[in-house]
Amino acid sequence: MFDDFEEREDADYDPEPVYLDDRRAPAADTADEEIGPILDELVPKKGDPEKQWYVVHCYSGQENKVRHAIEQRIETMGMRDKIFDVIVPTEEEIEVKEGKRRTVERRVFPGYILVEMKMDEDSWYVVRNTPGVTGFVGMGNDPTPLRQEEVKQIMDRMSDEAPKVKVTFKVGQKVRIIDGPFNDFIGTVAALDADKSKVRVMVNFFGRDTPVELDFLEVEKV
Length: 222
Known about the structure:
By secondary structure, this protein is of the alpha+beta class.
């Protein structure tokens, strides 16, 4: 397709650039001013790099009390612009006791709470000197913020809609079947599948050990 192309030998040949809609390219000294706002719209906004989640150690069993105390200090000491959120990571759990099921709220990390804050001397002082707080998690006096993937994992775990089943038995232990055709049979746990919430129980049926696969909620520890 280039057979008829004849190279021009005129060294002074400098074709006039053609611009769409007859618009000229912005001058070098004004390009940044004109393109800057466009780039600002295209580039995703990042969160405040100083606003991070920290792990605070407190007395086990007093997590909610300490959280409430920190929230009160945030208000009374005017630290809402530096300390943004305080949570006690929890998840719902189903337990079977005496043949009855009930849903309970279980602390994911007993003895620890999470605080979202901008770390400086003032915010550190407010949290660290809250009654019940024993310190920040980190090296020495240098608190270590959680990584984004760690925060996401914790938040996803808290927002999981399907409650986990609390298992009180393990392989080799005796359990009682409390539901289904083998109701009230006693058997021995042969295997557990935590991902599927299933347990395989060996039940003596007509003089023979027979494996029965059941849901975690269908058995209880003897």
